[in-house]
Amino acid sequence: MKVPRPHRYVLICCCWLGLIPFGRAQEYLDLASVSYTTSFNSNVLDEDRDTSIQEWSLNLDLPLVLNEDTALLFGLSSNKIGVELIPSPEPDTDLYSISLRLGVNHVFSERWSATFLLIPKVASDFTSGFRKGNQIGAVALLTSKRDVRLKYSYGLYANKEEFGLLLVPILGVYYKSPDDRFEADVFAPARIDLNYRLGERTSTGLRFDGLGTSFSIQNPGYPDHYVTRVSNDLYAYGQYDLTPSILLRAKLGYAFFRNFKVYENDEKIDLSLVGIFFGDEREILNQDIRDSFQFKLEMVYRFNFKSDPKLPQ
C-alpha cells in the first residue's frame, strides 16, 4: 500500500449519512424534508469568471414498527446538483443521486439498541441512465441511552464509491437541556446541529454538514470519468414551526474546503478513511471552484413520538 496522502479538505463522507435514523432519546423523528441550496457567485481557480452551485434535495423515511423492540427502516434520498466543470465544451453539468435505505433497528435493553442499514445508490449525470454510477453502502450503529436527555452512538459506514472503498467511523451524541430549550445533535463527522428554542414556535441554531460523494459522468468534455464532490458547510439558521409537525428553516452559511474534482474512470485509490486517501496518484482534470457563502431553505415534516409512546425507544 502506498503512503497515505492527506488532502486539502477535512473529510469526505456520504452527504446523506447524517440522515440515518437510529435508536432515539429525542421525542421526534424527521420523516421527510425538501431543501434548496444556492451558493453566491464564487471564482473558478485560474479562470477570470464567476460561477454558482444550485442543489435540490429530498429525503423520506418510513419506519415500520414490528413490536416494542424492533422496527424495520425504509428510506429514500435524492439530490440534484448543478455545477460547472471547467474546462469542458459543455461545462454546465447536472449531477443526480438516488439512494435507498433498508434496515432494522432493535432495542436490546433499556440502555442499548442497534441499527443496521443497507444503502444502494445510483450517482451520475444520468446520460447513461442507471447503467453507470451504481454504488452500495452499509451502516452498523450501536446506541447507548444514558437517560431521556442523553445518548451516545458508535458505528461504521462503508461505501463502494467511484474512486474505491470509503470507510467512515461514526461517533454520535444527543443531549437536551433540563429546561428543553437547548438541543445538541452530533453525528460526527457528518453532522453537528446545535439548536436553541427562543419561543413556542421559533428557534435558532448552528449547523455543520460534512458533505461528500462521487458521481459517474459521461459528457462531451468528460466522456468516461467521475467527479468527487466535497463541501464542509457551516450555517447559522432560524427555524419557525408552522405547525408542531411542519418546520421551516432558513440558513445562511459558508462552504469551506469545497471542491468538485474530475478524474479518469480507471484512476482509483486503495482506501479512503475519513479524508485520508491511501494509494492516491490520481490526476485532477478540471479547475477547482473557490469557497463561498451560500443560502439554504428547508422544509421538514416531523413526527412527534409523544403521540405514540409504544414506538421502539
What does this structure look like?
The chain has 313 residues and is mainly β. The chain is built from no helices and 19 strands. The strands form two sheets. The chain has a 14-stranded antiparallel barrel with strand order 2-5-6-7-8-9-10-11-12-13-14-15-16-19. A two-stranded antiparallel sheet has the order 3-4. A hairpin with a 4-residue loop joins strand 7 (92-107) and strand 8. The radius of gyration is 20 Å and the shape is globular.
Key terms for this structure?
single chain; 313 residues; mainly beta; 19 strands; 0% helix; disordered N terminus
Low-confidence stretches: 1-16, 307-313
Instruction: State the distance separating the first and last CA atoms.
Output: 43 Å
Rg computed from alpha carbons, rounded to a whole number of angstroms: 20 Å
Q: Which overall shape is indicated by the principal axes computed on the Cα atoms?
A: globular
**Helix/strand-derived class?**
mainly beta
- H/E topology pattern: EEEEEEEEEEEEEEEEEEE
Helical content class:
under 10%
Put simply, the count of helices is: 0
Number of strands: 19
Oligomeric status of the shown chains?
single chain
Q: In order across it, which strands form the biggest sheet?
A: 2-5-6-7-8-9-10-11-12-13-14-15-16-19
> What is the residue-averaged pLDDT?
88
Major sheet, described briefly? 14 strands, antiparallel, barrel
Determine the strand fraction and express it as a percent band: over 45%
